[in-house]
Design a protein that fits this description.
Structural class of chain A: alpha+beta
Largest sheet of chain A: 8 strands, antiparallel
Radius of gyration of chain A: 16 Å
Oligomer: homodimer
Number of strands of chain A: 8
Strand order of the largest sheet of chain A: 4-1-3-2-8-5-7-6
Order of helices and strands of chain A: EEEHEHEHHHEEHE
Distance between the termini of chain A: 29 Å
Helix content of chain A: 25-40%
Largest interface: A-B, 33 and 33 residues
Number of helices of chain A: 6
Chain lengths: ~190, ~190
């Protein structure tokens, strides 16, 4: 994928196929309320679109998984856009300076050996589709480091709740300084 | 450092404190010729600046070094802007799809255990100052993945030549699909 086609804009406002069912700050300041959300390929500029806010992120190579972990993820991960996946969540996260001051091996140790981030995620496949977007190195200032987009069927909502609870109980999450949870349903 | 203050633009044209002494493609197509180069903080837009070309990159956390390697690098690395460092080089690099399809542990193995990238760099400290900029995930399409900026005294030019030769002989460099070497002297 080219750089442009890897970039996505999450546009909150009065348009878009996703209705905001709930938006709550988990850590740090909340995002402004909006009734709908659109996920757009490429860069959407807020003033032109009339959006309440726009968050941008780029799909990139994985930073932590090993080859066996990646093979497990790829084999079990569903595509986005399944007809039955009428629930979605957007979870923007910012990690603190202590996280980014660590070296790769230190971050990997906390991410997987201590927090089992990938292993926990695998427990909820193939029910919960997921796409991770990176914002930290976009060039233009962004309020978050990561945007994770999830899609699942309504019946899998309790499983999704458990996924979030397990990740938030991990040591990795002690480095999260801002997090908002936006739950959506397809209009 | 904020996202904005980590972003730098390398502006080739008729202005700037660095005279282009040589610009040669090592792999892939060359960059257009220009007499001078400026290194500007933030985002410089080419049409407005009258530049021949602009390359942008963002300073970010290290992707491969371990804590002991980072400590060695930090202890030995000189600052940019030393008065005696009147020579500089800008080396933009793009790695191929096979590199980016590898997992982190696979890339680390080639980067350090096989290619000794950090160990080779340490051999030329504190003579050669270096700043790495990432372009791959900037959001706007960029022709390279990395821009590395080097500064050194004229007497250290042979050492810099050896540094480049050793890195280019490494297995890591078999994944480099585009590289240009721009040598500069302070005007």
């Amino acid at each position: 994928m080219s750089q442009t086609s890897r970039l996505f804009s999450f546009v909150a406002g009065s348009a878009g196929p996703w209705l905001v069912a709930d938006s709550r700050p988990i850590a740090g300041p909340p995002l402004a309320a909006a009734p709908r959300l659109a996920v757009a390929a490429g860069n959407v500029v807020a003033p032109e679109s009339g959006a309440v806010w726009v968050l941008r992120g780029i799909v990139s190579h994985e930073r932590y998984v090993t080859r066996p972990e990646k093979q497990q993820l790829v084999a079990a991960s569903p595509a986005l856009g399944r007809p039955e996946a009428t629930c979605a969540a957007l979870i923007p996260i910012r990690k603190n300076a202590a996280w980014w001051a660590m070296t790769q091996d230190e971050r990997r140790r906390i991410f997987e050996e201590e927090s089992h981030h990938t292993a926990i995620g695998l427990d909820y496949l193939p029910a919960i589709a997921r796409r991770l977007h990176h914002c930290r190195d976009l060039g233009e200032p962004e309020p978050f480091d990561f945007l994770t987009w999830f899609e699942f069927a309504p019946a899998d909502t309790p499983a999704f709740d458990r996924l979030l609870a397990r990740l938030r109980a991990s040591r990795e999450w002690t480095f999260v300084e801002r997090e908002t949870e936006i739950r959506l349903v397809r209009a």
